Amino acid sequence: MLTLWGNLESGNVYKVRLLWGWLGLPHRRIDVDQTRGEPATPAFRAVNPIGKVPAVRLEDGRVLGESGAILQFFANGTPYWPADPWEQAEVLRWMFFEQYSHEPAIAVNRYLRRFVAERSAFDEERLRHNHPRGERALDVMEARLAGHDWLVGEGPTIADIALYAYTRVADEGGFDLAPRPGIGRWLARMEALPGYFPMRQETAVEVLEFPS
Amino acid sequence: MLTLWGNLESGNVYKVRLLWGWLGLPHRRIDVDQTRGEPATPAFRAVNPIGKVPAVRLEDGRVLGESGAILQFFANGTPYWPADPWEQAEVLRWMFFEQYSHEPAIAVNRYLRRFVAERSAFDEERLRHNHPRGERALDVMEARLAGHDWLVGEGPTIADIALYAYTRVADEGGFDLAPRPGIGRWLARMEALPGYFPMRQETAVEVLEFPS
Question: Is there a single domain that holds both residue B184 and residue B102?
Fold first, then answer.
């Protein structure tokens, strides 16, 4: 069975879990918690040298990190990673946009607001610095989704999974989706797909404590 | 002919130029300069809504953004984007690592130190915040390159291009590569490949002013 290191509060972990939900792939989960600093420990760096969740272990023992790479690996050969070269590039365009321009503003502000009990002056500056960047990232998504059902092509892909995770909880980072109806309809479309489940719902057949 | 929006100081633009050098693809360049704020202008956002260089226009008029997506599109069907699914995932793992854990520390500190004339207190805090993150990213690279010639498999891929660009100028961000001999040998290996040229060398057959 597949093994996943991560927790139920991480959007990056959720991306992998949601694709596996779509694909009907069962997994066991080893609970690794950012708020306890576990990803940065030597024990976890022995699994994934960059010290970040998610990481996955295949049945043959190989380990893969980076949510975007994991999504592409498991979607390869399915419609969620299209066969057309231009559509592949468009999928990656959205996924790199998410990791570089969306997540560092929206997910980081959510993390600072939700999980950091005593924010420093630097944290407060980061919140202010990130906010307009997150707004702009949401505007870029809205410009696409105002007139299209999906980010790429005519059906859902791993680009939609990659953007869904933290867009869905953007309000926890202080971002308002109400003035962006295209995003709102797209969120509902994602949530109507077979295999969908919300981020904090457990889907592992077994949960182990870290390290295990 | 291919059109590229960007400048000679951007590592993200260099990645695309270097792959095109390897592939022998000629291009014209429209000079878009971050230090003049041009990527964020409405004129450039009409080309690339996220307001960042590089962007490229194919001969049929289609436009693509995000260096990682552009690299994958042009490498598709060449050895620089391997056919093996596991190696594809490993290439993307390094490329997402670069955009999420390497570039935001190393390239941002280079930008703050080299191109921001009057740094604010917040900029100084960012430099301090980013420095250990960049060191760690370089350590992750060194762990691989101490024992392997290339980041993935037995030959150069777009993962090597993606990591080369800002690693090569990491010293401008305050990072010391001397204690990392694996990275040093890999840089030399990259620079010995046919089609190689340094970042600031002009390779466009024509350069136009922005907007054009």
Answer: yes
pLDDT of residue B34: 84
For B32-71, write each residue's pLDDT tens digit.
Answer: 998 888 999 999 999 999 999 999 999 999 999 999 999 9
Percent of chain B whose pLDDT exceeds 70: 100
CA angle at A98 for the pair A34 and A100, rounded to the nearest 5°: 80
User: pLDDT by residue (tens digit) across A137-175?
Assistant: 999 999 999 999 999 999 999 999 999 999 999 999 999
Q: Which of A19, A92, A98 to mutate to test the interface with B (most CBs of B within 10 A)?
A: A92
Residue B212 has pLDDT above 90, yes or no: no
Of the candidates A64, A77, A125, which has its C-beta nearest B122's C-beta?
A: A125
Same domain assignment for residues A100 and A184: yes
Same-domain check for residues B17 and B46? yes
Q: Tell if the pTM clears 0.95, that is, is over it.
A: yes
Number of domains in chain A: 2
Peptide bond into B179 cis (omega under 30): no
B15 and B73 housed in the same domain: yes
Domain encompassing residue A7: 2-78+200-209
A2 Cβ under 8 Å from any chain B Cβ? no
Q: How many CB atoms lie within 10 A of CB A27?
A: 18
Specify whether the CB–CB gap between A8 and A197 falls below 8 A: no
pLDDT of residue A36: 86
Spatial CA neighbour of B164 closest among B107, B87, B84: B107
Give the pLDDT band of residue A43 (cuts 50, 70, 90): very high
Residues A74 and A89 in one domain: no
Sheet architecture: strand order including B206-209: B63-65, B55-57, B2-6, B27-31, B206-209
Q: Which of A62, A92, A137 comes nearest B68 by C-beta?
A: A92
Interface confidence, given as ipTM, is 0.97
- Are residues A71 and A120 part of one domain? no
In this structure, are B93 and B110 located in the same domain?
Answer: yes
Number of A/B CB contacts below 8 angstroms equals 101
From A197's Cα to the closest Cα of chain B, the distance in A is 25
Is A121's pLDDT higher than 80?
A: yes
Residues B24 and B63 in one domain: yes
Q: What is the CATH number of the domain that holds B12?
A: 3.40.30.10
Q: Is the dihedral of CA A153, B82, B8, B180 positive or negative?
A: positive
CATH number of B176's domain: 1.20.1050.10
